[in-house]
Amino acid sequence: MASAELQGKYQKLAQEYSKLRAQNQVLKKGVVDEQANSAALKEQLKMKDQSLRKLQQEMDSLTFRNLQLAKRVELLQDELALSEPRGKKNKKSGDSSSQLSQEQKSVFDEDLQKKIEENERLHIQFFEADEQHKHVEAELRSRLATLETEAAQHQAVVDGLTRKYMETIEKLQNDKAKLEVISQALEKEAKECRLRTEECQLQLKNLHEDLSGRLEESLSVINEKVPFNDTKYSQYNALNVPVHNRRHQLKMRDIAGQALGFVRDLVTALLNFHTYTEQRIQIFPVDSAIDTISPLNQRFSQYLHENASYVRPLEEGMLHLFESVTEDTVTVLETTVKLKTFSEHLTSYICFLRKILPYQLKSLEEECESSLCTSALRARNLELSQDMKKMTAVFEKLQTYVSLLALPSTEPDGLLRTNYSSVLTNVGAALHGFHDVMKDISKHYSQKATIEHELPIATQKLITTNDCIVSSVVALTNGAGKVASFFSNNVDYFIASLSYGPKATSGFISPLSAECMLQYKKKASAYMKALRKVQQSLEKISKLEQEKEHWMLEAQLAKIKLEKENQRIADKLKSTSPGQAVGPAQENASVVNALGQEEASAKAVLEPVHSTSLLPDVESREDLIKNHYMARIVELTSQLQLADSKSVHFYAECRALSKRLALAEKSKETLAEEMKVASQSISRLQDELTTTKRSYEDQLSMMSDHLCSMNETLSKQREEIDTLKMSSKGNSKKNKSR
């Protein structure tokens, strides 16, 4: 039990470990993916920083260039402003200079226009770069937030797994402690088993020596006292009277009584069924009171009228079978002679069913050919025809098996004992088949009666007769069901108890040997009753002898008292004068005479052979000696009878001891086998304990290594996440500063 629980725990732990390992793999994969994503983001961030630096440098150079251009434009505007009044004054004189300044102005205008366009383009690029930088920064911030969330989730999962691993480790340690306690208890139990086996071996050895001595003594007594062994040959062994089992006989009588009640119910139902069927033929399809019925139905009615002479003997046969099962007999198939009578009565009833079956089928066909028969009624009649055939076939099958069961009591080689169980099983199957057929008949007869009641020509007499037939069929169905269930409930008991014979062989026992066995059983019963009477007589004789000795002692004491009293009276008479002692002497004489008469009467009742004189004489002594020797002879006779009874008891005890010796040998073998099994189980448990210890230690070491590796990976992930956070914070600060 403990090993099964340990295996269940190991399996659960292995499943949990596999689940945790799979989760760890998933987490590892997720961490690796996140590391790859973080590395990619780092590369993208570096590239963006480089591009941002380039753009910043370009922006710085452009702003510087713009400032230079702006200063130059201002200088040119100042020069233009100064040159305009001079041009007004020297308009006439400086045509050539005006042309030169006009060319310079156009050049400056073109250069300024180019610078303006370039400045505009740079402003657009700067704006686009700024927007792109803001967009990238927002994406990186959102990605950083998601990464922080995922890191927190991973950290929670890691914390949960760590906590679960710690709980699992603690649980495994507790299981390990429990297993150590169980192993110690098992070792203690194994030690106790070894001590008990040693004690059992010692007791077995002593018992073997004791029984061996008793067996040798019993064998010597058996070889000296037993003239021959009647169990050597099966034909002689079959004549031995079995042990009387009063409980078995009472149960068999009770079963036979129940079977008799069921058969009576079936007989009553069959009588009613056949009688009401005869009445129905007389009134349907043609009423005999109005018109003559067909010759077929007349012959059918005549046969049905004889049903009682075939059905009643079934009850009588079962009654005789029940009366043959008494408390004093041995009820087996070889001794149930009355079963043959019941089988013959059942055979005669089967002949009756075979005789009426063709007429019954023809009668149903005649009803179908009648103009009053509808299609539904014709269908019911066809079904009833098939049912009647099945009913006859079932009865034939049942009669076949019953006749087979009756063979052991009549024919020696009619049925092998090995076939008893199959025959009884087939009887139960036939009874169930009979019940099924009767259910179909009841169903179809009920439907037929319902259809006929709806006919316009249905008379009250027909309705009443149909109701009686249906009720008889229902009773027959119920009786068949009770018989089938009764036989099915007792078939195992029948198989186990309905056989008697020599144990050494499995051959068939002849009915003659079974009859002889019953005669021997009666003689043995009469002999036991005679022995009981003799024992009672001996007890009465011993009680009478004891009472006789008691009353003899009482008589002797009374005699001694009387002698003392007579002596005292005589001495008193001598001491007194003759004249003064006339009255007292007469009184004493009367007293002595009265006492003598009482003593004589008592001795005449208790001991007729004793003398009636008051003083002891020769004859009384001879009688006492004779009575003493007679009592001694009676005592020796009783002792001899007691010795004979003790010898018989000792012989029975020797047989019992021999049986006990055989049982002891068997118990010794079984104990040796149990010892082997126990030693094997102990070694197996020890091996399982060592393997479980090793497996637990291996699992603990593996789990500790796994936890260490997970802690390392988690620390690495934390460091990477911290670096990512630091880098993202630095980038955000740089972006903000920019």
Automatic annotation (TrEMBL):
Task: Name where it's found.
Answer: Early endosome
What is one cellular component GO term in this UniProt entry? early endosome
From the UniProt entry, list the residue stretches annotated as the region Disordered.
Answer: 84-104, 712-738
Sorted alphabetically, which keywords does the UniProt record give? Coiled coil, Endosome, RNA-binding
**Recorded coiled-coil stretches:** 3-72, 137-196, 527-561, 654-688
Q: Where is the Protein phosphatase 1 regulatory subunit 21 N-terminal domain?
A: 11-112
- GO molecular function ontology, one term from the record: RNA binding
Range of residues in the leader sequence: none
State if Metal-binding is listed as a keyword: no
* Name of the protein in its database record: Protein phosphatase 1 regulatory subunit 21
Species of origin reads Phyllostomus discolor
